[in-house]
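Our working data are protein records whose layout never changes between entries. Getting from the letters to the tokens is the skill we practise here. To make this concrete, we reproduce a full record directly below:
***
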Amino acid sequence: MDEGDDKYNRHPNYFTYEVRQFSSYVPNGDPKRHAKPPRRFFPVPRDPNEQFMPTWLVRTSDLQLVRGCTVNEEYCTLSYSWNQSGENIVDKETGKSKRVDNGKHEIIYPARTIRRSPRGRKRLARQLKLVKFEQLIQQICKDFNVKYIWFDQMCINQNDKEEKKREIKQMHRIYSNAYCTLILMPELQMSALYYKKKWREHLVDFEKILGSQWMKRMWTLEEALLSPKLLFVGRDVHAWWYVQREFSVIRDICQRPARWNVNTVLRYAHIRTSTKAHDHVFALANIFSDLMNNISVSYDQPALDVMVQFYGLLAMKNLNILCFRKPQGGFALGDDDVGGLGFSEQTQWYHDVPIRKFDLPSWTGIAGEHLQDPSLKTSFTNYSISGRSLQVTCSALTMSDDTIREINSSTEAGQDGDGYYDVDEDVDAVPEGAFKLSLTIERHDQEESMELELLSEFPPRPHYDSCLAVSVRLPGHGGQNKGVKKTMLLRTIGNGRPDDEDIILSAADELLFLSHFFPIKTVVLFWWDLSSPSKEFASIDRFSQHLTEEFDGPDQCAILTGIHFTSDSKKNTDLYPFIKKEGDHYKAVGVCDIENPEYLFFGCTIPEQTFVIR
């Protein structure tokens, strides 16, 4: 086979593997080509304190199954997409699928020189060998010196329901106790750059990982997250996990020790699929292995029922399930990766989300993308799950009738007949250079309208670090009958000209948003100096909340201030669930940031309410 004929395997269900591989084992280092991998596995004696070994292992020297309890050295595991191990044939009558391996996997042996008798040498061209999947694995294990390996096609009797059920329940133990997991990714390969036809530079095409079959399968996520070490084996290059973690698409997957929680796992899980819908739950339950005992491993039960049950258990384990937003650019992509996709590709990533074909409750976050931050946490526990309903009792910013009555009953000044409170009637407390803006907000069954009037001259912007601000009142306690006055920044104001009319319109639009949570009618706006660290303020970052649904006009919304998520990466800023009323219940539509929440809520008594989220 000539080098010019060296093309990617034309059969998408089969793997092409070159024995002479490039090795990428140094972060940011140039990959080098070797006749044998420079880093191979050496037999590691099994720790006598280890109590677990898989039921069966494959001895790679002769592809024979042996009892795991008889093996006295460490074993490796295999992670791959079934779609690339052979052809899936679907029985039209039963609807069941089975794998058929027609032996089209390719092993490419390098050209070599042999001695001729009595003297001289002979050059042998590269050779192509067609093999079945098991023989392909045997060759890879031979090259990397893997003596024993576990993979499901050989180590689980796929026709024995009881054995399959038993092995699925202990999948997390199989991968977490392995020495290393070999990841088969035929899309991972080298690309060559030519310069004036004099030399060429080889680069690892890590972008191919994004569209690989391995990235789309549910079980491979569980296998990668639980494994102590990872080795990515591509067509003509292999790379270790500490090299791959430099690539932001799979940075979370390759971190060792692993740094993931409920929101980071769901971020990757929701873009993946499985041959059987039940496997989505069984794979996730293995990641959160303490939930495995509460899940019945049976393919006979309705898949949707299994999913609702599992997500309910997961929510009771950790409320980080609420930490999601509308995707920005593409699912499971870091900021560095979004730029590599065109607009049409980003749109396709947003819509082609396998989990969305299931009618799951909004609090599962399937309408959005879970946040990537593994440090998010909350101490809130006053909630329960019943079927599809998540019931929480906590304080909340919302303009419900009860909240308006609460504010009005504690207010002596500034109250008018339409239930709104003029937050800045005490103009004496407003800094010099402020201006008044009158808002008339009307909310009907299906519409929301706003009229604004500038009641005083718009002052020039003092300097670049100035931001428009408004004072709002929250219900107070301890005899503060006017409520507690707080400074809120209007973060949406851009860097336009100080006399630009668009600034006023942006301010009015932001005030319209705030009016869903604070009583606002006539307000006094003023410039706020952001460069002064001594000044206290708060802000609700409206445009970074990326809600999965727009709330239109009269929609009743709530920010669940009693449920706050803190993050190591965001100082002085907490995240709060955002919900929207729909009939007799609420929908979870994302989270929003509140900067300086301690200042905003200090001295305030926000009444608790009970919300049913479905």
Remarks:
- The CA atoms of residues 40 and 276 lie 36 Å apart.
- Residues 260-376 form one domain.
